[in-house]
Amino acid sequence: xxxxxxxxxxxxxxxxxxxxxxxxxxxxxxxxxxxxxxxxxxxxxxxxxxxxxxxxxxxxxxxxxxxxxxxxxxxxxxxxxxxxxxxxxxxxxxxxxxxxxxxxxxxxxxxxxxxxxxxxxxxxxxxxxxxxxxxxxxxxxxxxxxxxxxxxxxxxxxxxxxxx
Length: 164
Prior knowledge:
Layout lengths: L4 H26 L8 H30 L8 H9 L13 H18 L8 H39 L1
Helix pairs in contact: 1-2, 1-5, 2-3, 2-4, 2-5, 3-4, 4-5
């Protein structure tokens, strides 16, 4: 028996809260930037970008496990999970995220891969700037789309209860 959408949402909510905290932390780090970023700033910003995508991915893992009944494994599982939540599963659930948000989150996923597989001193502020600048809007859009998903799933769950 699958957990109710509200139980699943309770499990996911701490990761959503973490994501919003990351946005605030990034804003604190970059809010009054008028000089080139130090290596410490670059490393901190990279960590926040990593944290944002990791929080989103944890929510996606919960949805994949609780609703879809399967979480990708093995090499390439991070990309496969993002792809999985970007598509509808007929007679089970709507797409969790829109195609536009999928593309934007994929940029964060790709950055996280680079960040985790290079030395911090190799990271470049100018390459990170678009991700940093878009962080608040991506987080807001993800929060909104996840709330829409939660509402749709509650409606589906209610229809299952009434039909059977």
